[in-house]
Design a protein that fits this description.
single chain; alpha+beta; PH-domain like; 3 domains; seven-stranded antiparallel sheet; 12 helices
């Protein structure tokens, strides 16, 4: 049907006036082209590979065509057999052309946006979280920690049954251990230590004075003093507000990532904070400071810090450099040096200290989840 030509409307881009034209398909160089003939004008050749369709027009008069690039001219061919032929012979109708100058601009702005997000995540948020941690009221921090512990309980338990272990004798053993460690220390928090029935050799600090010990860690320890050393280390993280800074930083990072990927409900942020608290890997400086605090806390309680080194050696031997939920304590690259440091810092002889728990109380603690 293109042999005789098809009547169409043509807009030259110079005025709003339409021109009646006759359109035919002709051979052109290495392919085909639309030949646009208008009275009194030179015929125009529009190669079919360069044809682009303008969709979603206000008036649906037919298929609206243009040439790729910046040519403002438009051609409207009525719906019908001619349109079907054009769609078959035009391979790039829906391809979008972006000028090189615009590509450079897009790359520039995309690079700037990515750099801004990286700057926020890696520089601004860490610095800001440190300042915010100092400004968070104690009551809000405690509430944050309580919510985090409940969230972790649900995340790990994956059922309606809580993982928190309770029995009278075991609770008394935990309380006695805390009292011995903190009676001569001026702590900003009232500690809330919970034992989770979870077979991981792990422990972690939560904002507001909350500390979680996994039953796997208690089982792995040979003496209550080994548990006391780990507990003293986590108390150091609590007092230094390391967990609070990490929570604020992770929540902020997850919030930004959530907004980028469309998670405005906060579910991703809550999950990210939960995972980070369970598997908290602090900086070497934060770990060293928590260790130093633990050594001093143990010394004030007239307890040796050498068992803390013994426990670190066990984790290093068993897990090596593994990371993840196995044990965030074992994942630290300086674990061997920290164990040596704990032994060197001990001010109490292993032969002359009063045990933190009696043999019966240690047995009660080990059975707290049964």
């Amino acid at each position: 049907m293109f042999d005789q030509g098809v009547s169409a409307k043509f807009f030259d881009g110079q005025s709003a006036r339409s021109h009646s034209v006759l359109v035919r398909v002709v051979d052109h160089e290495n392919g085909s082209a639309l030949l646009i003939e208008q009275d009194g004008q030179e015929p125009r050749h529009w190669p079919t590979p360069h044809l682009r369709e303008l969709r979603h027009q206000a008036r649906d008069e037919g298929i609206v065509l243009r040439l790729d690039g910046s040519d403002p001219a438009r051609l409207i061919i009525p719906h019908g057999p001619a349109e079907d032929i054009i769609r078959k012979i035009s391979p790039n109708l829906h391809q979008r052309h972006v000028p090189k100058s615009m590509q450079r601009k897009l790359l520039f702005w995309a690079g700037g946006a990515i750099a801004s997000v990286v700057l926020i995540l890696l520089v601004i948020l860490p610095a800001l979280s440190g300042q915010l941690a100092k400004m968070v009221p104690l009551s809000r921090e405690i509430a944050m920690g309580r919510t985090a512990v409940e969230q972790i309980d649900k995340y790990l338990g994956k059922s309606k049954t809580s993982l928190v272990c309770h029995n009278e004798a075991g609770d008394l053993a935990v309380a006695k251990m805390i009292t011995r460690l903190t009676s001569r220390a001026n702590l900003p928090y009232q500690l809330n230590v919970r034992v989770f029935n979870y077979d991981l050799e792990n422990a972690f600090a939560v904002p507001g004075g909350y500390i979680v010990l996994f039953s796997g860690l208690i089982k792995a320890a040979d003496t209550p003093e080994e548990v006391a050393g780990v507990l003293a280390h986590e108390i150091g993280h609590v007092v230094h507000r390391d967990s609070t800074r990490r929570t604020l930083r992770t929540a902020g990072s997850a919030g930004i990532i959530g907004m980028v990927f469309g998670d405005f409900a906060g579910g991703f942020a809550a999950l990210a904070v939960t995972k980070q608290l369970i598997n908290a890997q602090y900086s070497q400086g934060a770990e060293s400071s928590a260790d130093d605090f633990a050594h001093e806390l143990l010394a004030r309680a007239e307890l040796p810090s050498a068992p803390m080194g013994v426990f670190f050696d066990k984790l290093k031997k068993k897990y090596g450099g593994k990371t993840g939920l196995m044990s965030h304590l074992a994942s630290h690259p300086e674990l061997g040096k920290r164990a040596d440091k704990a032994r060197a810092a001990s001010t109490v002889s292993l032969d002359s200290f009063r045990p933190i728990l009696s043999a019966a109380e240690w047995s009660d603690l080990r059975k707290i989840c049964k």
